[in-house]
Design goal:
Helix 4 (103-119) packs antiparallel against helix 6 and helix 21 packs across helix 22. The longest helix is centred in the N-terminal third of the chain and has 24 residues, at 39-62. The protein has three domains: 3-24 and 155-263, Phosphohistidine domain (Glucose Oxidase, domain 1, 3-Layer(bba) Sandwich); 36-146, PtsI, HPr-binding domain (Enzyme I, Chain A, domain 2), CATH 1.10.274.10; 268-588, TIM Barrel. The chain starts with a strand and ends in an 8-residue tail after the last helix. Helix 11 (293-299) links the parallel strand 9 (283-288) and strand 10 (305-309). It has 25 helices and 16 strands. It is an alpha/beta fold.
Length: 596
């Protein structure tokens, strides 16, 4: 029976496929596809974990005090019974053999199936045994985590995929950690749906970078959509259709074909220079997460990388950070792939919604007990780990000997942070000189992500060569909105007058100081804001490679002299979005160069 689920549209387009569920767990679980040759090793990991947990439980039962309540022994009996239940074990092995899920994912998937069966039981006692099952599964997951570490990446040369068949697949989850998103980025999923998240959560950002439809904040989607259900994800409206009728399915397939034709049309612009009707040249840069993304940036027509999010090199590693050599090779690969075009590398932006596996107990306590967005993150975290910070700086400086590299410091708000960061850079250069390793000159920039940085910009610009405005965090901190929390996602408003005033001021201050300024947040890749940003004087946009052609088309249709005449009207309005649409949309829609 067909039904609909509603959420927030965060990546445009239509995806149609069978549901692959990623079950939520109280402990982190890695999700990745394995190869045929690894099936036996994964089942052995499961078998080893079951033996270890069985030993734990029997030891606990044997060592119970004489005066222990009998209920405790009975509870351990229940856990041992569940542990040995073939419904759990055999089915989990089946997920591994047939779907090629890693052992942890297979166990979580089977837990999801059994948990729903418990929920549907009429007997209260049996229904309450779900909690025991969850505890047993978590013991198994912890036992596997204690075992030999395994690589989360598929074997080289073998594309990750689901081995259940040739049908397209869509991913359904309560939430997807940035590390898992990084892994799934190389997979065959054609769309995403999550219960939680906002329009600028990392699930949304990576989905857009993959140019696949996504809906977040869909509440109970992962609870009511079942494994293998046919699902339509409408990334334009935020509607998720489960088990659609043939008529509805054909309508969405028609929209898919139309979207494909539109992408093909826009792709013809990739080698066209971005110049406005009045002759203003606009720089189209790309945001990337990994060195391999650089090729897509060049293919999309980017004239450089405006943001290399280096933190993704640090994720999904089981707690082991990348060393200097590994980082250097990654940065050099990106620099060389850009063929002489500039690459802006942001130092690691860890914290908030991007915690590291190896964060200390003190850091993790703060992550869970306090608001992580206001805690130890970005430049604050780097300065608290001086050894790690200098290691990354050395790797970036060495990569600069192979091409044009710009160094970007995230979330700077204090002059003291500037002083400490520059001292670390100077120390890294000294260490490279002493080691006889080559490095090149790099421009150093700061990200403007908090209102304090905008107000401090004239002072900050005395120290930096360029500015990059991170609109995602700037909006979050200006409006006190957690951008990953669907409960307040409706209040996350890029059109808020205060946000526009701050962006305008940041661009103006940079121009007054004669320093280049770009925007690398989601607003840069949203055509709704292109005219307003051009009117503010922005001439450098950094975005997902998939968005470059759409923004470029908008630039080619724009006359910045005409746009500037209406800027104050937009900034002074209580409803800037409505005013902007009324003033700018008709002007941009007139007959001008297109992709045709």
């Amino acid at each position: 029976m067909s039904f609909q689920v509603f959420g927030l549209p965060v990546s445009r387009g239509v995806a149609i496929g069978r549901a692959v569920l990623v079950a939520s767990s109280r402990i982190d679980v890695a999700h990745y596809f394995i190869n045929e040759t690894d099936v036996e090793a994964e089942t052995e990991r499961l078998r080893g974990a079951r033996d270890a947990v069985a030993l734990e439980l029997t030891t606990l039962q044997r060592d119970l005090p004489v005066d222990a309540p009998p209920e405790l022994s009975a509870l351990l009996d229940v856990h041992l019974m569940l542990l040995r239940d073939e419904t759990l074990v055999l089915a989990t092995k089946q997920w591994i053999r047939e779907r090629h899920y890693n052992a942890e994912w297979a166990l979580s998937a089977q837990l999801e199936v059994l948990a729903r069966q418990f929920d549907e039981m009429e007997d209260d006692y049996l229904r309450e045994r779900k909690a025991d099952l969850e505890q047993v599964v978590e013991r198994l997951l912890r036992a596997m985590a204690r075992g030999p570490s395994v690589s989360y990446a598929p074997a080289p040369g073998v594309p990750p995929r689901d081995f259940a068949g040739e049908d397209p697949l869509v991913l359904i989850a309560n939430d997807i950690a940035p590390a898992d998103m990084l892994q799934f980025k190389r997979s065959v999923f054609t769309g995403f749906v999550t219960d939680v998240g906002g329009k600028t959560s990392h699930t949304a950002i990576v989905a857009r970078s993959m140019d696949i439809p996504a809906v977040v904040g869909a509440r109970e989607a992962s609870r009511i959509i079942r494994q293998d259900d046919w699902v339509v994800i409408d990334g334009d409206t935020g509607v998720v259709v489960v088990d659609p009728s043939p008529i509805v399915l054909e309508e969405y397939r028609f929209r898919q074909r139309q979207s494909g034709l539109e992408r093909d049309r826009l792709s013809r612009l990739r080698h066209t220079q971005a110049i406005t009707l009045d002759g203003e040249r606009v720089e189209m840069l790309a945001n990337i997460e990994l060195p391999g993304d650089a090729a897509a940036a060049v293919e999309a027509g980017a004239v450089g990388v405006g943001l290399f999010r280096s933190e993704f090199l640090f994720m999904n590693r089981g707690g082991e950070l990348p060393g200097e050599e590994e980082q250097f090779e990654a940065y050099r690969a990106a620099v060389e792939a850009m063929n002489g075009l500039p690459v802006t590398i942001r130092t690691v932006d860890i914290g908030a919604d991007k915690p590291l596996d190896r964060m200390s107990a003190n850091e993790l306590r703060h992550e869970h007990a306090l608001n992580p967005a206001l805690g130890l993150r970005a430049i604050r975290w780097s300065l608290s780990e001086p050894g790690m910070f200098r290691q990354q700086l050395r790797a970036i400086l060495r990569a600069s000997a192979h091409g044009k590299v710009r160094l970007l410091l995230p979330m700077v708000a204090h002059l003291g942070e500037v002083r400490q960061a520059f001292e670390a850079i100077a120390k890294a250069k000294q260490q490279l000189d002493e080691a006889g390793k080559a490095w090149g000159n790099v421009e150093i920039g700061t990200m403007v992500e908090v209102p304090a940085a905008v107000l401090m910009l004239p002072r900050l610009l005395k120290h930096f060569d360029f500015v990059s405005v991170g609109t995602n965090d700037l909006i979050q901190y200006t409006l006190a909105i957690d951008r990953a929390d669907e409960a307040v996602a409706h209040l996350y408003d890029p059109w808020h007058p205060a946000v526009l005033q701050l962006i305008h001021r940041a661009i103006a201050e940079a121009h007054a100081a004669g320093k280049p300024v770009s925007i690398c947040g989601e607003m840069a890749g949203d055509t709704a804001f292109t005219d307003v940003l051009l009117a503010m004087g922005l001439r450098s946009f950094s975005m997902h490679p998939s968005r470059i052609s759409s923004i470029k088309q908008r630039v080619l249709r724009a006359d910045t002299r005409a746009l500037r005449q209406h800027l104050q009207e937009v900034l002074a309005s209580d409803d800037p979005e409505a005013v902007s649409q009324g003033l700018f949309a008709p002007r941009s829609a007139r007959a001008t160069p297109t992709a045709a």
